[in-house]
Amino acid sequence: MIKNAVLINQGAEARVYTAPFLTHTAIMKERFKKLYRHPILDKRLTARRVIQEARCLYKCRRSGVDTPVVYFVDVNNSSIYMEYIEGKTVRDILRASTTVTDVTTLLNEIARRIGVALANMHAADVIHGDLTTSNLLRRESNGSLVLIDFGLSYVSALPEDKAVDLYVLERAFLSTHPKSEQMFASILDSYAVNYKDSKAVLIKLEEVRLRGRKRSMVG
């Protein structure tokens, strides 16, 4: 591990640190070894995921999505160095929204920006794979909506995959933030306006929702 790196989060796939990089403070995301896999296979699969994540971040930025700037990809050490962003997650903003004076205006603006970001991401055929309100960040400097944590991302042009992406975010909203139905509806409105192929995705979203309800009924 790099000198002076500070662990700030650990998930199922990777550890996330703040670390010095040249003249910047950066985020270093390090995928760790899976001991249950053969070492050669594990190194190959991990390298593939690191490269895939970096490529998806690059594709999103080219499509107009605000994502962390990638500084360096260290495939040998299964690490990505990227921009450290000052800001609050949408999860934290929603939880603190009762203390905000003009909360309706703020949440409407955030919903619009989320819809635009998802539209641009899907226009680039990037599937995030883990959309939650913790992976949506509002920049402190200019209020821009940033998508983070592309560890499960991949490329697909299928409306079904894009619909599942939206469904995962919808479930995250409804399970974590009570009474957020209207905000998610506003996100979908913004998505529809800003993504020319949204109609097919939204039709698939209804099908995905129906399957989800059936699974809930069956238990």
Query: End-to-end distance, in Å?
Result: 44 Å
Summed up, the helix count is 6
Strand order of the largest sheet: 1-2-3-5-4
Helix content: 40-55%
Structural class category: alpha+beta
Taking all Cα atoms into account, the compactness measure Rg is: 18 Å
Share of residues in strands: 15-25%
Kindly report the average pLDDT value. Answer: 92
Largest sheet: 5 strands, antiparallel
| Spans of at least 5 consecutive residues with low confidence | none
Give me the count of strands: 10
What general outline do the C-alpha atoms trace? globular
Helix and strand sequence: EEEHEEEHHEEEEHHH
What can you see in these coordinates?
- With 219 residues, the chain is of the alpha+beta class.
- Helices cover 47% and strands 21% of the residues.
- It has helices at residues 39-62, 90-95, 103-123, 159-176, 181-194, 198-218, and strands at 6-10, 14-21, 24-31, 70-74, 79-83, 87-89, 126-127, 136-139, 145-147, 154-155.
- The strands form three sheets. The chain has a five-stranded antiparallel sheet with strand order 1-2-3-5-4, covered by helices on one side.
- Strand 1 and strand 2 form a beta hairpin.
- Helix 3 crosses helix 5 (181-194) and helix 4 packs across helix 6.
- It is globular, with a radius of gyration of 18 Å.
- The model has no long low-confidence stretch (mean pLDDT 92).
Give the arrangement of secondary structure elements.
Elements: E1 6-10, E2 14-21, E3 24-31, H1 39-62, E4 70-74, E5 79-83, E6 87-89, H2 90-95, H3 103-123, E7 126-127, E8 136-139, E9 145-147, E10 154-155, H4 159-176, H5 181-194, H6 198-218
Antiparallel strand pairs: 1-2, 2-3, 3-5, 4-5, 6-8, 7-10, 8-9
Helix pairs in contact: 3-5, 4-6
